[in-house]
Fold:
Amino acid sequence: MRSVIAVLMLLCQVNTFSQTGVDASGLFRKGKELYTRAEYFHAITELKRYLFFAPDSALHHEANLMIAAAYKKGGFYRLASPYFLNARNSAQNTRDEAAALIEHAKNEILKGSPATAQKILNLASARSPERRDEIRYWNGIAGLFAGNLASAAAILDSLSPGDSLAALCRLGEADLVNPEVMKIISAFLPGLPQIYLGEYSSGLLSLFWCGLWGYTAATAFTADRIFDGIMTGNFLFFRFYNGNLENAEIFGQNHNTRIKNSILSFYQNNYNGLKPEW
Structure:
């Protein structure tokens, strides 16, 4: 038993010696070299080892930033977020802190969290007033991804009057519809919102079926065929009428989505401005 304990103690000492003997700066250099060679996941491994073996190093900001950027380049935006936060917290000055915040915001845009990106950008603006225009630009792009076309247009146009993306956002904003209003109109004029949105077959069918079964139910009531009127109204007229209301709202939402997606497609493929690295 004593011999087993002695062996275990010896192994612990060897393990401790091996860990304290690690060249942390070498791990950092290797991780940075792998990152520059675009071997991102190998770089992440080495840089994480560096963070473990050098917990108090002044290079933590750069290491965390490279890990976050490597995850981002691989499309792992959720995994990148905490390392951008660590990079901000380990920054040695407000300039580095603002840079980490801006990169974090760009990652949140790609992650599909534009509201979070705008909050982060507001923090960056307070840390780095000299980068205000760049921060405002990314605020506009975050607004675009959030579907706030009017806000995006106002910001982009203020930075660059006549900006093509701002003009497209204004046109898109003018073409948007309120799905709730479409639903209300459809309650009084079944099929009209669908026809207005270009969904002619759906609109005409809604108008036809609601008109047919509404007329049939009304005729039954006026002829004192109450049971026929109730059955026709409940099982035929209201079925098509309620479907018409739902369709009007859904088509309104789909119409808005198509407009916003077309603007995002223009931004991604045809716009010459900065992108948050796809």
Q: What stands out?
A: Confidence is low (pLDDT under 50) at residues 10-19. The chain has 14 helices and no strands.
